[in-house]
Amino acid sequence: MLELDLFFFCVAGPAVIFAGVSKAGFGSGAAFAAASVLALVVPPELALGIMLPLLMLIDVSSLKPYWGKWHAQDARLLILGGLPGILAGILLYRVASADLLRLLIGVVSVAFVLWQLALATGVVRLAKSRMPDGAGLWFGAITGFTTFISHAGGPPAAFFLLSRGLNKTQFQATTVVVFWALNIVKFIPYAVLGMFTAQTFLANLLLAPFALLGTWLGVRAHVLVPERLFFGATYVLLLLTGGKLIWDGLT
């Protein structure tokens, strides 16, 4: 059961604002932290079900300022590749327990931080050459899978897009349109799998203003806030929530 009490909204409100800021202002790479935070206080399938309509609302709100500024070919590759990835996510979800979902969300959260640290310290170096189009389909499949099981498709999508020589606004606009499309595709299987309930619908209505506020802040933060500051705070949040989810999933 989902308890829509003060404690829930004290956790969910800031998490949804954070998702809006991340998706609208910083390429959506860490927006999935909101689902990780929610999974600490509600069953993980309900956390995913609550966040999807809100992420879709953020997507729609983010489309206008970035409309037509995306790289069409790169967006097409990631979307087409994402479809079989979503199918793989559906198949896994059908056999996954709540603890397995917590474990997966936690592992993705911690792995994201470790990957970013490896890049920052030079342990891992991205290829400077432009990735071929076929790589977009491959990374699209990873994007589709991770976005289905944890709303964490941002990192693999970014890995591909960063090699394609896009400017900051093209990169942001391309991620907005890619996840707008993939989230629409995810909606029907989420509904069929029972991840939406009357309570999650009510939570969506009450949390929608937080999503819109986060989107508004994110579009402005895209220009005003240093990325290093934003992602530094994000990595701490993801390590804490991811570690707790892994512990809960294993115990």
N→C terminal distance? 21 Å
Radius of gyration equals: 17 Å
Strand content: under 5%
Note the quaternary state here. Answer: single chain
According to DSSP, the number of beta strands is 0
User: What is the percent of helical residues?
Assistant: over 70%
Helical/strand content category:
mainly alpha
Task: Work out the helix count.
Answer: 10
What's the helix-strand series?
HHHHHHHHHH
Overall morphology: globular
| Overall pLDDT level | 84
Can you summarize the main beta sheet? none
Low-confidence stretches: none
Notable traits:
single chain, 0% strand
Summarize the structure.
With 251 residues, the chain is mostly helical.
Overview of this structure, please?
This protein has 251 residues and is mainly α. 79% of the residues lie in helices and 0% in strands. It has helices at 6-25, 33-38, 44-66, 72-95, 98-121, 133-150, 154-161, 168-192, 198-224, 227-250. α4 (72-95) runs parallel beside α8. It is globular and about 50 Å long.
Give the topology, please.
Layout (H helix, E strand, L loop, with lengths): L5 H20 L7 H6 L5 H23 L5 H24 L2 H24 L11 H18 L3 H8 L6 H25 L5 H27 L2 H24 L1
